[in-house]
Amino acid sequence: MRREKRRISIFTRRALMLAAGQAGLFGLLGIRLYRMQVTDGPRYATLAADNRVSARLVAPPRGEIHDRGGILLAGNKPHWRALLMVDRATNTKATLAAFELLVPLAPAERLRIRRAVAAHRPFVPVLLRDYLSWDQMAALAVNAPALPGIVVDVGTTRLYPFGTAMAHLIGYVGPPTGPQVAHDPMLALPGMRVGKTGVELAQNAPLTGAPGMVRLEVNALGRVIRDLARNPGTPGETVRLHLDATLQQQTVAELAKKKSASAVVLDLETGAVRAMGSTPSFDPTLFDTGLSAAKWKAWITDRRAPLLDKAMAGIYAPGSTFKPVTALAGLTSGGINPGTHFFCPGYLDLGGHRYWCWLHSGHGWLDLPGAICQSCDVYFYHTALATGIDRIAAMAHRLGIGVAPAIDLPGAASGFVPTLEWRHAQGKAWTLGETVIHGVGQGFDLATPIELAIMAARVATGRAISPRVAAAVGNRVLPAPPFPDLGLPKAYLALVRQGMREAVNNPLGTAYASRLPDPKIEMAGKTGSAQVFDMSQAATASNYNTLNLPWHLRPTALFIAFAPVGAPRYAAAVVVEHGNEGASAAAPIAKAVIEAALAQPPAVLPAAPGPARAAGVPA
Amino acid sequence: MIAPRRTEERAEGRLLRTAAFDLTRKLSRINWFFVLLVVVLGGVGALSLYSATGSIDPYATRQLVRFAAGFALMLAIALVDIRLIARLAWPFYAIALVLLALVLKFGSVGLGAERWLSIGGIAVQPSEFMKVALVLALAHWFHRASWERVGNPFFLLPPLIAILAPVALILKEPNLGTALIVAALGGTIFFAAGVRLWKFALVLVLGGLAAPIAYAHLHGYQKQRILTFLNPARDPLGAGYNIIQAKIALGSGGLWGQGLMHASQGRLDFLPEKETDFIFTLFAEQFGFVGSLALIVLLGLIVFMAGAIALSSRHQFGRVVAFGLGMNFFLYVFVNLAMVMGLIPVGGVPLPLVSYGGSALLTTMAAFGILLSVHLHRDADFTPKREAGSL
């Protein structure tokens, strides 16, 4: 019994000790609760004025886009906007009515706001109006007590310092679409923009960043009393391009002399796109700040297609610029050999039809470089006949024509070179006459300017060069992919290059007028003029032929080039829509652009993108 | 001829009346203050669930039905003789251990890492049962232990294993929080039973040394929780969201609260899991510091009552059982509240009687039934058979 008593006293003592511990821990909870709800109230909520803490997500600033030297190509600039904090508004309808007295809303805007209020998500304020004028902002600020739940804050607009000059390549941003928001609710934040085209679309993920959160102390009227904590989020990363802003401006300035033209300049070392432009162009900021219906209509009805990036998506008959393809196809397949001469009487008669050379008086006897130099059609009629369309198509694909280019940009179209199989699949027979015209880049042959630039680059280097736009994302330098050798015999390539060199530097050459002024630095090139009146064979047909204007019936003027001849650094392609003659319309542009490119110091890339440099005085 | 029959009838009737009288007498001796506490807390739970959605469906209705079932279960268990419960202690423990092993093999993982076992369509958490079974088993063991025997390390070995086996199984689920709660529960029972203090000191020192090694073996999400707890702003939309939102809801309650149905944080769906683990924040936002403190006092009263029952019991089994069940309830409440107040890492522990959930509610009510049985049979003649015997 004494034992039992001892056991009871021990248990009682121990239990009371633990009970004291429990009481202490409950007391701790009480103190914590007191501190959170009463003492520390101001940090979470201010009691008397029925204030509340508002946690608000903030859109991260979108990453900048720089050119290779760090010049700002796309950035952000602040503007005023009005937001509605739904859970802060005592009476949403009354608040909106009061708001409308100060800032009139269009019916469509009203509908959008009503929907957004109905589908309200936590933390996500509803955007009432972007781009407030100074007067509107001031009126809202003054009347804030009568507008519970409405907050005026600073948003950002995408800024494109070079505007139209790079609109196609850089692209533009706009509000996210419904499915995009459903996929990533963060995009519902006011001010969130997603890339719609160009680099903005291709690099959208790194440019976007991660949202931050602001915890605000707000009184019952929705007026911010102070920030409690601010996590600005992770800004989007800076994307540095291979593009050279100066060269791009010079290129676009040259193109703008024509009604409708495009050009691509590639660096042969890395495949870097140094310049790529298409004119006419558009103002990319309008997609962000608001585009009038009239402007939009004007853009989409303009037959020169200002919204289309013709450098990547314009599809043209390549004309004589295709001849290097036919030449290499003939040489590698044995259809012709390096010593082959053909006689050009000015035409070729085949199957009761006469196929004219552009020089109706004829070129006489020519070897391959001579035929390229003078752009003799008959020589390539013979070569095509000796080679066959399938081998020509295979060589075209090898050189990058007729296959969508592997480029880190959206929207690249693919050209086309027919094959027997394709024609037979259509239930049609292939005639030798068709082989003849496809050897000179007519008929079904189609190519985009960037494909032509790739072809020129591959002929110049013998390697499978592919174009690249982005050089670095944040601190990560994107490595240059290896460009494998195409496996074309050096002697054949040398022969074609010699022809292209003579085309520019031999007085008999079609582009002699566009030779570089410094005789020590030679440019090689090939002119092209492609007929477009058979509109059924041109992809651009649907855009233009209904208008049936004389300008529009003129042939496409094309030119491909690389330079310097001995150690090529750049390749370029220029296409002038309805420019008539490659030699007179396209070649001078290529000359100017290549000259500008060669005048630049060799690329010395900064290791990582620093803060943007301001652009120099625009040329 | 007639008289004897009458006598028989009378005797039978008396017998029946006596049984009925016994039952009423027993019922009248139930600790009705405790029952009242439980009913009030159940009502608070239903009210909170009602305010979570602004309608009685679906949570409040279902919770009330479960509470009614649990209430009947509690009263039924309360009438069971404590000696019978004691006899069933170890079998019950064995069943709970088997269920824990089964859940590892067949259980499905719910939110986070709570392991559930579906028995006849009802989701049960064996760890819940294990806590009650462990209390019963340890109480049974220490019931026959004198102060001297408790001092014998070999005598402590079997109960230590009885604690560590379920802890190991729960750790493997993996559910660190519950494992720690079970370990703490066992530890406090050891303490109350009179295990020498230096042994606790030894365990604490060894545990402190082992902590860094244990941290290295934690799962990624467990480390994540600890890191997020240390700095909730690290990831405001991800892991830190719960803590930040819970704190905002609590803080906005203020001294008197926003009033019933005026919990903007809760109603606007800022609060995650507001009907289960985070129900206290919903309550606190509506009823403020005063209401929250009252709720804490009510919960504390349950623990206090359990302690009072323990001290009133004249047998060691009743003492340890009542104390252990009170401690179990306390650990639940404390871990849940400390979690939503941001004092300890988030670990998926509901607030007993208030949070929405069937399995936990029924287990809690069953434990209360045992507690009431201890109270009812506090004076039962229940001396250990071999009190002085050796191992």
State the helical fraction of chain A. Answer: 25-40%
CATH-wise, what's the superfamily of the largest domain in chain A?
DD-peptidase/beta-lactamase superfamily
Work out the helix count of chain A: 24
Per DSSP E runs of 2 or more residues, the count of β-strands of chain A stands at: 21
**Percent of sequence in beta strands of chain A:** 15-25%
Q: How many structurally independent domains of chain B?
A: 1
List the total number of helices of chain B: 15
The biggest chain-chain interface is: A-B, 44 and 48 residues
Overall radius of gyration of chain A: 33 Å
Helix content of chain B: over 70%
Word description of this protein:
The complex is a heterodimer of chains A (619) and B (391). With 619 residues, chain A is an alpha+beta fold. Chain A folds into 2 domains: 59-241, Alpha-Beta Complex (Penicillin-binding protein 2a (Domain 2)); 245-280 and 308-599, Beta-lactamase (3-Layer(aba) Sandwich), CATH 3.40.710. Chain A is built from 24 helices and 21 strands. In chain A, strands 2, 3, 4, 5, 10, 17 and 18 form a 7-stranded mixed sheet that branches. Chain A has a 5-stranded antiparallel sheet with strand order 12-11-21-20-19. In chain A, strands 1-8-9 form a 3-stranded antiparallel sheet. In chain A, helix 14 runs antiparallel to helix 21. Chain A is elongated, with a radius of gyration of 33 Å. Chain B is an all-alpha fold. Chain B has one domain (33-376). Chain B contains 15 helices and 3 strands. Chain B has helices spanning 2-29, 32-53, 59-79, 82-106, 126-143, 147-150, 153-172, 176-193, 197-216, 220-230, 241-253, 264-267, 279-312, 316-340, 358-376, and strands at 108-109, 115-119, 122-124. Chain B has a 3-stranded antiparallel sheet with strand order 1-2-3. The N and C termini of chain B lie far apart (62 Å). The model of chain B is unreliable at 110-114, 266-270 and 387-391 (pLDDT under 50). Classes of the chains: A alpha+beta (619), B mainly alpha (391). Chains A and B meet through helix 1, helix 2, strand 1 and strand 8 of A and helix 8, helix 11, helix 13 and helix 14 of B.
